[in-house]
Design brief:
There is one protein chain. It is built from seven helices and 13 strands. By secondary structure, it is of the alpha+beta class. The chain has a single domain (4-266), classed as Alpha-Beta Complex (Fumarylacetoacetate hydrolase, domain 2), CATH 3.90.850. Strands 1, 2, 3, 5, 6, 7, 10 and 11 form an eight-stranded mixed sheet that branches. The protein has a five-stranded mixed sheet with strand order 4-13-12-8-9, with no helix packed on it. Helix 1 (4-20) packs across helix 3 (36-52).
């Protein structure tokens, strides 16, 4: 396990990379034996710093929910990060591109909770019963840690990504809210276009067979840390498309059919 000094040093580097909008080198180059537990310890310490600066946790995100993405990074379960209050954008927002280093867009469903959800032993039925409504969303990803090292050309490890708040950077909420038992959520599909051209399509079942499985997984994963999912929190359940690069001047439009649309412009 990393010692406190190493964790604090990693947090300082992440904070500076985000502030300066300049990539930092991979933590695993300095700590090649860094474990997933170490990575979450860094993430949690970074989020505690954010809270001390006046930020608030408004929700959570779940990533790496598809089998394709899990195989790509050689893991067999998702990861998670925190959604802070300054990460939320309205549908149709102008997104300040210069706030990010190398943003990407993903398409997913956001679950808004009406009651507290805590593990262990949380099931998909608990997750559905605790959900007030579900709404289409776009997630903005950004990496503070280099994806490919500038010198060695080594690709970053899953532990780098977890420490980096699972690449979480923003969320755009739109579309039509609906109750999770009104429809078969697995079959909700979407078309994601950039500048009028469809880039990716997908269906929600790609997220752990049902997106609510991810909500239950997260409640159980957080339980050993004494953390629960709280009423009113927004939980991003995981993308069912591959990430799409976002550049200054790009307009994104996600069409969820009968469940509405979500759009944003990178200004």
């Amino acid at each position: 396990m990393l010692d406190r000094k190493s964790i604090e040093a990693a947090v300082a580097r992440l904070e500076e990379a985000e502030r300066s909008c300049k990539f930092m080198r991979q933590l695993t180059l300095e700590h090649p034996a860094m474990t997933i537990e170490d990575a979450y310890a860094i993430q949690h310490a970074w989020m505690q710093l954010k809270l001390s600066q006046g930020r608030t946790v408004k929700g959570r995100k779940i990533g790496l929910t598809s089998k394709v993405m899990q195989r790509a990074v050689n893991i067999d379960e998702p990861d998670y990060g925190a959604l802070l209050d300054n990460m939320f954008f309205h549908d149709g927002s102008n997104i300040p591109t210069d706030r990010f280093i190398q943003p990407k867009i993903e398409m997913e469903l956001a679950f808004v909770l009406s009651r507290r959800l805590a593990g262990p032993g949380c099931t998909i039925f608990d997750a559905l019963n605790a959900t007030d409504y579900v709404v289409p969303a776009l997630e903005i990803l950004d990496a503070r840690i280099e994806r490919v090292d500038r010198e060695t050309k080594v690709t970053r490890k899953i532990t780098d990504g977890i420490a980096d708040n699972a690449s979480d950077a923003g969320i755009v909420i739109g579309g039509r809210p609906f109750k999770p038992l009104e429809v078969d959520v697995r079959w909700i599909g979407g078309l994601c276009s950039r500048n009028g051209q469809i880039e990716e399509t997908g269906v929600a079942a790609a997220v752990l067979n049902h997106p609510a499985n991810g909500i239950a997984w997260l409640a159980n994963k957080l339980a050993p840390h004494g953390i629960a999912l709280e009423p009113g929190q927004v939980i991003l359940s995981g993308s069912f498309i591959r990430p799409i690069d976002a550049h200054k001047g790009d307009t994104f439009h996600a069409d969820y059919g009968p469940f509405g649309t979500v759009s944003c412009y990178f200004a």
